[in-house]
Amino acid sequence: MKHRAPRSAYLGDTPYVDPELAAEAISAGDSPLSPRESDVLALARDGAPADEIARRVSLSTGTVRNYLAATIAKLGTTNRHEAARLAAERGWI
């Protein structure tokens, strides 16, 4: 009952968790990506080229490409755009 959530929170009762949000969070599972892979993939999602991502996260361009290749492999996608879309859908980035 969503209408009870604000009152329960105000009274200090057990916090309300929306069942749909909880189900989505559980079904997404834990991210297979490292924190650095997630950072790099999040920047790639916005369309930034590897050299720009490298500059923004203080890595070499080759290292950024390696991280992107690892995320593509871990997520079973064919390119970084698909990997970013999938990771975003699952709440990993």
Describe the structure concisely for a colleague.
Helices cover 66% and strands 0% of the residues. With 93 residues, the protein is mainly alpha-helical.
Account of the protein in words:
- Helix content is 66%, strand content 0%.
- It contains six helices and no strands.
- The protein has helices spanning 5-11, 19-28, 35-45, 50-57, 61-75, 80-89.
- The protein is elongated.
- With 93 residues, it is mostly helical.
Tell me about the biggest sheet? Answer: none
- Residue share in helix: 55-70%
Q: Average pLDDT across residues?
A: 84
Low-confidence stretches: none
Structural class: mainly alpha
- Count of DSSP H/I helices: 6
Q: How many runs of DSSP E, i.e. beta strands?
A: 0
Kindly report how far apart the N and C termini lie.
30 Å
Which sequence of SSEs, written as H and E, runs from N to C?
Answer: HHHHHH
Q: Outline, from the CA principal axes?
A: elongated
Strand content: under 5%
Rg, rounded, reads: 18 Å
In terms of topology, how is this protein built?
Layout: H1 5-11, H2 19-28, H3 35-45, H4 50-57, H5 61-75, H6 80-89
Helix pairs in contact: 3-4, 3-5, 3-6, 4-5, 5-6
